[in-house]
Design brief:
This protein is mainly α and 420 residues long. The chain has one domain (2-394, 410-419). The protein has 20 helices and four strands. The strands form two sheets. The protein has a two-stranded antiparallel sheet. It starts with a helix and ends with a helix.
């Protein structure tokens, strides 16, 4: 009976974390539940690499964001309700990751993926109509559910085939970024399955960065060529051509917000605050750098979305810096490092799953090229599934005979690998 109660409590906590039902001021039911269960899960989550440091920097970032908001009130318009909302978004993300770490001994990764994916899908049904529903609404929730289902049957090949199916679907629905993410995730899983020599499989974080850059560059050039040739549709071809002509690169032309981030950093390197709204001087500093990318920043997107009633630079790391100052920047970099380090360890032990691969690629891309609000729910799931226990060996077979590795619930496919 107690076992079933624990299972039900874990399932409710995971679904709730994925749904993002707000109770007010940006605080979600998942955040409230995580805080209520804090005495139960904190000690367990603290046993995973990087999580204690992430919690410490999150607390420092929230404090910094509130202090910067107060300090900015004499120069900028500030909104304390916005400050609470942004602080709750950040804190709730790290808390949700802790809850997932807590339930991992009770639920397998594919069960967590199905439950969390159900929560994401439930939230997606509440989002009003968007220009590209697949890209902004349905793509990732459906991918998490489908990949978790493939993982449930313990078939690595099926997981790779599902990822390739989402590559085709994303290309058909005019989502270049999701197409590339799913393709690189499939490529990593294929490499993991190959009988590589030990010296190639035992990757450090530096080699993982080089591997990711190589695979990402290959996917970028492939889909740029396909888009420019018209193979991905006329609208994709026209948009890609415009972006390439504008800044000499599809990446720079498609992400003029990078210029805004650079301009704001030069204007005020300490950051602005979780509840600060830019004044005309700050907006002008961002627009000057955006203009250097041959982008016309005198439009409603800049005035209303980026710098209207909030501060949005379309980058998870950039948002963390702008809203929470230098502690937020350090937190963003630590988040990226923690995921790369976890990828290195999982790749070397052949324990990376399709759900982990897909959420990892989405998170790493959006941490640099997407809004913090968009990446937050996937980031929580990715951290909860990717972080490894402290003391777990970095490489397959690194434990001495007779000394078991730290206990972590695994799928049967992972257990077969660990016994070899």
């Amino acid at each position: 009976m107690l076992l079933w109660l624990g299972f039900v409590a874990a399932a409710v906590a995971v679904v709730n974390a994925g749904m993002r039902i707000e109770v007010g001021a940006g605080v979600t039911t998942g955040c409230v539940l995580a805080l209520a269960l804090l005495p139960l899960w904190l000690s367990t989550a603290a046993r995973y690499r990087h999580y204690p440091a992430l919690c410490g920097l999150t607390a420092a970032s929230v404090a910094s964001g509130l202090w910067l908001t107060a300090a900015s009130s004499s120069t900028y318009e500030v909104s304390w309700s916005l400050a609470v909302q942004n602080s709750a978004l950040l804190a709730g993300t790290v808390l949700a990751a802790g809850v997932i770490l807590w339930v991992r001994p009770v639920l397998s990764d594919w069960q967590i993926g199905l439950l969390y994916g159900a929560g994401l899908l439930a939230e997606a049904t509440t989002i009003p109509g968007l220009d590209n529903p697949w890209k902004y609404q349905w793509g990732m929730p459906l991918a998490v559910l489908a990949l978790a289902g493939a993982q449930a049957v313990h078939s690595r090949l099926l997981g790779i085939l599902v990822l390739l199916g989402f590559v085709v679907a994303s290309a058909a629905f005019d989502s270049r970024s999701l197409t590339g993410m799913f393709l690189v995730a499939a490529m990593i899983l294929v490499l993991q399955a190959l009988p590589l020599p030990d010296r190639l499989r035992h990757l450090g974080a530096g080699r993982v960065i080089l591997l990711m850059l190589a695979l990402g560059s290959a996917a970028y050039f492939l889909f740029t060529r396909l888009a420019l040739s018209g193979a991905l549709g006329l609208s994709t071809q026209m948009r890609t051509q415009e972006q390439a002509l504008r800044a000499g690169s599809v990446l720079l032309g498609g992400r003029p917000e990078m210029g805004a981030t650079a301009g704001l950093f030069l204007h005020r390197p300490e950051g602005f605050g979780a509840g600060t709204v830019l004044n005309p001087e700050g907006i002008a500093a961002a627009q000057r750098m955006m203009s250097r990318l041959n982008y016309d920043p005198d439009n409603g997107y800049v005035y209303n979305y980026m710098f209207g009633r909030s501060l949005e630079v379309h980058s998870g790391v950039g948002d963390l810096w702008a809203l929470f100052g230098l502690p937020g920047l350090l937190l963003g970099l630590l988040l990226v490092w923690a995921l790369i380090d976890s990828l290195a360890r999982r790749f070397s032990t052949r324990s990376l799953t399709p759900v982990q691969a897909a959420t990892l690629l989405f998170t790493l891309w959006t941490m640099f090229f997407g809004p913090l609000y968009t990446v937050a729910p996937i980031l929580a799931l990715c951290l909860g599934l990717m972080l490894v226990p402290r003391g777990q060996p970095r490489f397959l077979g690194a434990c001495r005979p007779g000394l078991p590795a730290p206990v972590e619930r695994q799928s049967s496919g992972q257990r077969r690998v660990s016994r070899r």
